[in-house]
Design goal:
eight-stranded mixed β-sheet, 8 strands, about 35% strand, globular, Ribosomal protein S18 acetylase RimI-like enzyme
Length: about 170
């Protein structure tokens, strides 16, 4: 029997579960030797801000939160300056702060999340998805490559240069 997988907007009641999932991801990145998320960001305030702005989304498996991500429409100031070039200049969804609950780690949840994000993007008539990640986040780099995202160049975020990717959806 296939589990029911849904992407929904996060609610303030979800914040503690989301924060726990992000803390697990911060620790996994540290154990993997990644410098990403090792400087106090993201934090609980980031999660609360995401939820308040309508950016926070959770992917549930049979009603249980498995993955968190911030989905931001057309707004990432750091993306206005890229060392390289984006594939498009139309409307886009930005994916930030992807974190998987350790109970669901290794089960292809981020691939399923990106499937859900692509459906979300199509349903809103938005042209593309843009995402960045740290040069040493090997798992995410493999996922983006496997999902057909194109490397576009480097963008400067608060904690340094990040690899930037885009996928045209419609």
């Amino acid at each position: 029997m296939n589990p029911e997988i849904k992407l929904r907007q996060a609610e303030i009641e979800d914040r503690n579960i989301i924060w726990e999932i992000i803390q697990q991801s911060i620790e996994r990145r540290r154990q993997d030797g990644s410098t990403q998320w090792q400087n106090g960001y993201p934090n609980l305030g980031t999660v609360e801000s995401d939820i308040a702005k309508g950016f926070g989304h959770v992917m549930t498996v049979d009603g249980e939160i498995a993955v968190y991500a911030a989905l931001i429409l057309n707004d990432e100031p750091a993306y206005s300056t890229i060392e390289g070039a984006w594939l498009s200049d139309g409307e886009f969804v930005v994916v930030h702060r992807v974190a998987v609950d350790e109970k669901f780690a290794g089960q292809g949840m981020v691939k399923k999340l990106f499937d859900q994000i692509e459906e979300f993007t199509k349903s809103h008539g938005i042209q593309s998805i843009k995402v960045d990640t740290n040069h040493d986040n090997i798992a995410m780099l493999k996922i983006l490559e496997g999902r057909g995202y194109s490397y576009c160049g480097e963008v400067l975020l608060r904690d340094g240069m990040r690899k930037a990717f885009e996928k045209i959806i419609i």
